[in-house]
Amino acid sequence: MKIFITAQITDLDKYTIVNEPIEPIDLMERASMQVADWISNTINCDLRIAIFAGPGNNGGDALAVARLLKDKNFKVHVFIADLGARFSESFLINLKRLQVVDQVTTINWDSGIELPAISDYDMVVDGLFGSGLTRPLSGFPARLVKHLNNSAIPILSIDIPSGLMGEDNRANDPEAIIKATYTLTFEFPKLSFFFRENEQFTGKWEVLPIGLHPDGIASTQTQWNFSDRQTMAGILKRRAKFSHKGSFGHALLVAGSYGKMGAAVLAAKGCLRSGVGLVTVHLPRIGNQIMQTALPEAMVAADKSENTISQITLLSGYKAIGIGPGIGKSTETVSALRMLLQNYNGPLVIDADALNILSEYPEMLYLLKEDSILSPHPVEFERLAGKAENDFERLSLARKFCEKYKIILILKGAYTAVILPDGCCWFNSSGNPGMATGGSGDVLTGILTGLLAQGYTAHDSAVLGVFLHGLSGDLSLVGSSEEALMAGEIADHLGLAFSALKSESSFGKAKKKNHF
Quick one: DSSP state of residue 415? Predict the structure, then answer.
């Protein structure tokens, strides 16, 4: 799914109006019906709802939602915030339609007016401001927003929480932004929804389709994307009937040190479950028996050192290499990593301690081959590229980092961002907070290395690998909980994740349809 900035979404609305064609008021009605249906399917109609409508099209949406909910026998009261601005044409049309079925209460924009008591309501619907804001709210609008936030009543925002900007909120006033419990946005998520600092405003958000013109969407370019199931299913490779293990590549994982052999086992398990043909794990001699016992499917290349990675030889024959899980930062290991970067020209995944070594020896960053995949969590990225005050700033820093070194960066988090050398970014839609557990990243390293070894491009390996990792984590919660999730379960459920994606693909659907 593409993600567009707010100006592009406005253009797509206009494109749809001209090329469908459809009247603006009818497009608004389509969007409002989606919101009203969501509310009626989610919320008890006995609850009392206070709807706040501003003077623009967001307010027009709110008025249409009020009328539609009235038709569904909801107990709705509408407050119109007269902010001293000219009402939009669609707002006035929906106001007239609403006044046929109900009275409305107008809140004057005068800053001295007493704001309405809303303690008797069970939910507030926020339709004060849309996504076109370019500066923080102030004066009466800011006072109204604070009044609604202080009510402690659940708030549902239409399209975007009032006061929140669609992209950059670094100069915004957090006290003048609606803190929604739910946000129902139209057609595409806003870029600002993917940043940790804005979760307090968006709450749980959901995308509602409103039928924007597909030709307009297809022809509009963007650097922002959201990895949905359908797109990821399109990346999956089909296996030929006469395939053999050599068809799916040989991966090398460099992992483990004394006391951290679990990281090597988890990475190897993730790699094996990714579909790779062969896996060899280069690890300290102390780990040989552990690996052979835990994963007999994996081969072992024992290091000459008993407890650490000291030297990586025989680099030919591998389709991809992953390095980092549990390797530590000994002097010998630093030398081994440098030698690998100098002598291996194939696809490479760098994670965990290998990233920490690069942070301490930044000159080694210039040894990275183009499209190498680095997968840091926020603290590891901070060590690599410097501190950021918030996620928006961190993403900007990450894009510059990728452009400078021509690498692919997987910035792990709630919506893990895969950033490409050209600045394009894919936010991940799968995964859950239970995956914030030791070893989860090691499994991801294995998955990424396995996909690369199978011949997936670095871009596809990164985007698909992150999605499969998250989807497997989601499937691990069936009959369990986020608190109890362990990294090994993520690897164990990869088969179900692949199956879920296959069923999403046109091949999977055709196979199911024609089965007899």
Answer: T
Query: Is the pLDDT confidence value at 4 over 80?
Result: yes
Q: What is the pLDDT of residues 305-326, one digit of tens each?
A: 999 999 998 899 999 999 999 9
H-state helical runs in 3-120: 6-19, 24-42, 57-71, 89-101
CA-closest candidate to residue 337, choices 234, 434, 254: 254
Alpha carbon distance 301, 283 (integer Å)? 7
| Number of helices and strands in the chain (H, E) | 19, 18
| Cβ contact 176:129 at 8 Å | no
pLDDT per residue over 447-502, tens digit each? 999 999 999 999 999 999 999 999 999 999 999 999 999 999 999 999 999 999 99
| Domains of the chain, residue spans | 2-222, 232-508
Neighbours of 261 (CB within 10 A): 23
For the entire predicted model, the pTM comes to 0.95
pLDDT tens, 86-95?
A: 899 999 999 9
How far apart are the C-alpha atoms of 315 and 447, rounded to whole Å? 20
Dihedral class, residue 38 (left if φ above 0, else alpha if ψ from -120 to 50, else beta): alpha
Label residue 483 exposed, middle or buried (CB < 10 Å: 0-12, 13-18, 19+): exposed
Please name the fold of domain 232-508. UDP-N-acetylmuramoyl-L-alanine:D-glutamate ligase (3.40.1190)
| Contacts (Cβ under 8 Å, ≥6 apart) of 56 | 85, 87, 88, 91, 129, 130, 132
Q: CA 65, CA 49: separation in Å to the nearest integer?
A: 11
User: What is the rounded distance in angstroms from the CA atom of residue 159 to the CA atom of residue 148?
Assistant: 17
pLDDT of 6-46, one tens digit each?
999 999 999 999 999 999 999 999 999 999 999 999 999 99
Q: What is the Rg, in whole angstroms, of the alpha carbon atoms belonging to the chain? A: 26
Q: Which residues lie below 8 Å from residue 481, measured CB to CB, with a gap of 6+? A: 434
CATH of domain 2-222: 3.40.50.10260
Is 125:62 a contact under the CB 8 Å cutoff? Answer: yes
Q: In angstroms, rounded to a whole number, what is the distance separating the alpha carbons of residues 13 and 188?
A: 12
